[in-house]
Amino acid sequence: MQALRERLEATPDLPVEAVADHISQRVAERWQPLAEERADELQRYFEEHGDPVYARYSQLLLEPVRDDLQELEAAGYRIEPAFPGRLPDSVEPRTPAEERVRSFWTLVSSQDGTPRGSLVYRLYHDHTRFRIPRAPEVLALPETDPREIRAAIGRL
Q1: CA distance 54 to 45
Q2: Do the beta carbons of residue 59 and residue 136 sit within 8 Å?
Q3: Of 113, 112, 110, 132, which Cα lies nearest the Cα of 123?
């Protein structure tokens, strides 16, 4: 897989898209094997704690991404808050309990603070048992204002 720094150098005008593509590839490789390998452990966690199991799953899924994102900082960009974003800022519309999707977001800026766009992490999940019905998504958005980001997520 191409290193994040190489992707950034190849597309200097599109850093948010390069980061989203990179993380998407990481997620595509890991999401299902991780859910299957840890299914029993994560189901027990769900039975004891409920929805926080999906935070645990996301931590495990995105572990390799944390190191990659250090390359982003080395290339002159910042991500705030830390990827994938903060629970209080996330969006989860009311849908059937078995068909939920929670969207987290974070901003990507140049070192000087100039906003470059936002990254959205969408986790599809089930509120009745531990289940990840489809691959999580990582999307790049041009929006940088929190209200505009939430509105864009609402249109997805």
Answers
A1: 10
A2: no
A3: 132
| pTM given for the model | 0.92
CA dist 138 to 41, 46, 58, 123, 153, Å? Answer: 25, 24, 12, 9, 12
For helices 15-37 and 52-74, give the axis angle rounded to 10 degrees: 140
| Residue-wise pLDDT tens digits, 92-148 | 999 999 999 999 999 999 989 999 999 999 999 999 999 999 999 999 999 999 999
> Which residues make Cβ contacts (< 8 Å) with residue 54, sequence separation at least 6?
102, 123, 125
CA-only gyration radius of the chain, Å: 16
- End-to-end CA separation in angstroms for the chain: 28
The domain tally of the chain equals 1
